[in-house]
Amino acid sequence: xxxxxxxxxxxxxxxxxxxxxxxxxxxxxxxxxxxxxxxxxxxxxxxxxxxxxxxxxxxxxxxxxxxxxxxxxxxxxxxxxxxxxxxxxxxxxxxxxxxxxxxxxxxxxxxxxxxxxxxxxxxxxxxxxxxxxxxxxxxxxxxxxxxxxxxxxxxxxxxxxxxxxxxxxxxxxxxxxxxxxxxxxxxxxxxxxxxxxxxxxxxxxxxxxxxxxxxxxxxxxxxxxxxxxxxxxxxxxxxxxxxxxxxxxxxxxxxxxxxxxxxxxxxxxxxxxxxxxxxxxxxxxxxxxxxxxxxxxxxxxxxxxxxxxxxxxxxxxxxxxxxxxxxxxxxxxxxxxxxxxxxxxxxxx
Length: 349
Fold this sequence. Notes:
alpha+beta, Jelly Rolls, 2 domains, 8-stranded antiparallel beta sheet, 8 helices
């Protein structure tokens, strides 16, 4: 029997950056290109990444989206995002300080960026060096004029709010949040599938040619939030179920995405049925197998640092294994996990 729907194994695309490093390889997440090329990002679900398994092997994710449409994406993903792959998952290695950035919301991007999506995202901190931190908004209430003057004086860092981070922290970054990842942080990011980023500030750093990097000051000032961040900044995970063998919790939830962390405390299995959204399944440690198809007899294996995309119309599946998985999708408004997360994280409504 030919299986037209199955978990898609993708080959992540690796991105060289001036602030990247080799941590993804050193710590066993990815195989990186030789010659000590600094890799800052591994894009797990880029639409140009190539499927590695099954009948669609050799085709790009974007091409498979065109072929399968709603069967892959799901009704809710189509409602929120339209006929496009909804979410971009990444591993990010900040070997050096990133620039200070801000993303627009959907409305601003639609009006000013040729109909593109805005960008809301979240970070799950995988590892952090001692004293590692992030930038998240401003210390106190400010305004466009004050921020513009600080940028001009190369002194914006005096206004920025810095937050120490460690492994396991959850940072929800709604559109309009001024933010930066600082050096020594390794994280997993999930975002609306959008390439719209406004660089607000870069600490006066120069490129290799001795010129300042391009900034998008006008756009940044128009879309930024100037109120102080919510108390504590870090989101609270919400337990969904706990047994002697499995812990299932919701890390973050909003209209754009919901991510659960599933911890297999010992070799065990989790059964489910796909619904109205595709699922992005990423393995953070150890390994798992995803069984699917008639009587769930077909299987795809998933090891540390690997990602599968499970089509919305796949039907029944069973995940067997041990270790930790991240399980992300576009939620429906009635999603129980979303409601529970909102109750525990009211400042992010």
